[in-house]
Amino acid sequence: MLPSTWSRLSCRTLCSRGQRTLSLFSSSGPSNVNKVVSDAEKIVGYPTSFMSLRCLLSDELSNVAMHVRKLVGTRHPLLSTARGFVYDNRNNLQMRGVIVLLMSKAAGPSQVASDLLAQDMVSGIYPSQRNLAEITELIHTAFLVHRGIVNLKEWTVSDGPLKDMQFGNKMAILSGDFLLANACTGLAELNNTKVVELISSAIGDLVQGIYYEGSSNTEESSLTDRVDVATWEEQMFLSHGSLLAKSCQAAMELAKHDKESQRLAYKYGKHLSLGHKLNSDLQPFLKSSVAEPPSFSLSAAPVVFHRQIVGQERWHQQLQQAKTLRNQLDYSKLLAAVKSEKGMSSAVDLCCYHGNKALEAIQAFPSSEARSALENIASAVTKF
User: Fold this and answer.
1) How far apart are CA 93 and CA 55, in angstroms?
2) pLDDT for residue 376
3) SS3 for 27?
4) FRET partner for 185 with CA separation of 20 to 30 A, picked from 18, 179, 266, 329?
């Protein structure tokens, strides 16, 4: 567990660096992150999402797009994932690639890199680092597509025809596998054993983290599992932080930077990812209204903090009190229960802590436009 004073110290440090004081009632949201990431794309030269024009026009993805059209009119998650490739106002699908490139540019060429390698740099970034950024996006998107597989045991008529849902599942599996295979091919072409080892381990972390996440986001697990904040952080790092952290470290390895630079890059990616996840988890609790019923995960950070504060017995009682006549959960009642304690404010403090740790890591790099952009992104995840 973190020291008892971490939340106060981290927020004070952020504020002393000129950041706005956090408020549970402020009106900004994830758009803060999207805006600073969009601004950062201008620094690294181009949007880094793998869904670039080159990829969109490939025969394989064109065929996938034609097949996905068959799902129109159903509620298969693959449809919303596909829409997100074009535009998603909640989650910036390009963020990971942009950060890898910004980190590469902020670090610059290493002292041991040859002058011949430096001649290949474009906008202060090696071609291999740009390839790595695209590989990172490919892996992330492959897992987004795979997570869109529907549990057909829970299928209802309102979701759409069963044969269409089955078809959607096949498309999600095949499309995700295709993207992951392309990422692995690109990874091998980098010809760097350590980078291959880092990114391969990140893929393994993703699989493990998504398994934990799926198994803990049920009412049954919420009643039986004893989850504390330290365990939550470990699991969220696997599913949300490992890929970015290890990609940032790999970018330093490709430029032949020393172990300390690699450690700092890893640290930035880790803490930024956790801060971003906390920001995302907090949104339903900060933005809920009577007109719009809340929707949140039972493994969201405010819920985990709340469970730890009130204890398992009290949490069981609150779950039972939130049951409707149809034995379903009334999330409005659960949200009110979480808001009644300090689960939300504790999650905000932890988000502030991780943003601060990311800022500490990147400030060890030379002052530059790229470093400033990375600082802005770290600051944005602590604004609500």
Assistant:
1) 15
2) 93
3) coil
4) 266
